[in-house]
Amino acid sequence: MADEKREGGLSAPIRYPLNQHGEKFYDKPDLHQELERVYDICHGCRRCVSLCNSFPTLFDLVDNSESMEVDGVAVADYQKVVDQCYLCDLCYLTKCPYVPPHEWNLDFPHLMLRAKIVNYEDGNSKFRDRLITSTDMVGKAATLPIINGIVNAAKENRTVRGILEKALDIHQDAWLPAYARPTLQDSLSKAVGQTDSSAPQNGKVLLFASCYCNFNEPGVGESLYKVLRHNDVTVSLMAREHCCGMPKLELGDLRSVEMLMQKNIPELYEKAKEGWDIIAAVPSCVLMFKQELPLLYPDDERVKAVAKAFKDPFEYLSKMHKAGKLNTEFKNNLGNVTYHVACHQRVQNIGPKTRQILELIPGTVVKSIERCSGHDGTYAVKKESREFANKIVAPIVRQIKQQTPDHFGSDCPVAGRHIETNLANGQEHEHPLQLLCKAYSI
């Protein structure tokens, strides 16, 4: 008990279910009371000031108030802090000394999530945000014949981008991903069907394509497939995959999250029961199934089973290496690699698995950067937040410029592209899975 009452206790952080069906979850006075309580603790601590713009926003509100305390901040301004949070989770798992089991029971990201959900239920979301978080719908439309070429041309057209900024507040200078034809699922379905399942295998993996890899950067997913097959792992695809739900969760749209969960979980559960490991190349998708869905649906045994089966790619490869099954016959060295640790991989508590696997490659030196890139999938493209996203990524860019690596990359593809855009020296982000393919020469 003593450990629970002191700052920086030795007990591991405990994450409690969100309790979105609780009696007071949507009660605004209760929510505002909890926001005031947590804001007051954060104001007295301030060690998270460098993580994202939520904390500078809060501290500026406090410092500019008449009392210079949280009680001087208007309740109507509480949402300004919420709007700057994109649920990277770093404050909870890397900075805050007051997380459970501490008696103050502070879970800043999930309090922000609760506020986002209440705000969404009040009808305060923007059409832009509902649109850009509908990744399945937009991806399917943008990869249709003819439309695909129009969409990709339009995103590079300054006139169109200017119109897009005025109409939807999507910043005209923000990097936007292209849409690919064929999609990852289209390109891999034939190869997966030709795999000889009777041959000796080192494991069996269901590859969750993810919206981003499927529609925007299939090369990342193809690299994951190549690495797994190079290591004699059987790979399968879902018969019908849907978005993991993370974009809708960050919007506060729990109805869509539940709908997507009900579409994905049955098939994933059957694979988990059959002993398949499940892997996605995008850390946010892995975290959604590993952490967020179990906290939303703590009594659903299917969700628990899927969470146990879900793994980060390099977590899986590390497990293979420990079992003596990983192919370490690399053909090429990578020289100096600067590796950005994605937030949603970092908070999975799996350790530096990507760096450890890359360091197995002879003649390769890996330098890690553990800072948020500030992209969040949508935060860096919005007109009102792009400036903050660029400020957050600036320390990463400075380190890469100082290190002048042969390669740089991130486990999060959009974080990598955001870094690349701000680096602006012509060097392209390379996903660690793509670097692994280079080392294998596959």
Characterise this structure.
The protein has helices spanning 28-45, 54-63, 78-83, 90-95, 108-121, 127-132, 135-142, 147-154, 158-168, 184-193, 211-215, 218-230, 246-251, 254-273, 283-296, 301-309, 313-322, 343-346, 353-358, 386-403, 413-423, 432-440; strands spanning 203-208, 233-237, 277-280, 310-311, 335-340, 364-369, 407-410. The protein is α/β, with parallel strands linked by helices and 442 residues long. It folds into four domains: 14-121, no CATH class; 127-168, no CATH class; 184-311, Rossmann fold (3-Layer(aba) Sandwich), CATH 3.40.50; 325-440, Rossmann fold (3-Layer(aba) Sandwich). A four-stranded parallel beta sheet has the order 2-1-3-4, with helices on both faces. The chain has a three-stranded parallel beta sheet with strand order 6-5-7. The model has no long low-confidence stretch (mean pLDDT 93).
**CATH class type of the largest domain:** Alpha Beta
Number of domains: 4
What order do the SSEs take from the amino end to the carboxyl end, as H and E?
HHHHHHHHHHEHHEHHEHHEHEHHEHEHH
The CATH architecture of the largest domain can be given as 3-Layer(aba) Sandwich
Count helical runs: 22
**Biggest sheet record:** 4 strands, parallel
State the CATH topology of the largest domain. Rossmann fold
Poorly predicted tracts of residues: none
Rough outline? globular
Amino- and carboxy-terminal Cα gap: 54 Å
Which strand-content bin applies to the residues?
5-15%
Roughly how much helix do the residues carry, as a percent range?
40-55%
Rg, Å, rounded: 22 Å
Q: Classify the secondary structure makeup into a structural class.
A: alpha/beta
How confident is the prediction overall: mean pLDDT? 93
The tally of strands reads 7
Side-by-side strand order of the widest sheet: 2-1-3-4
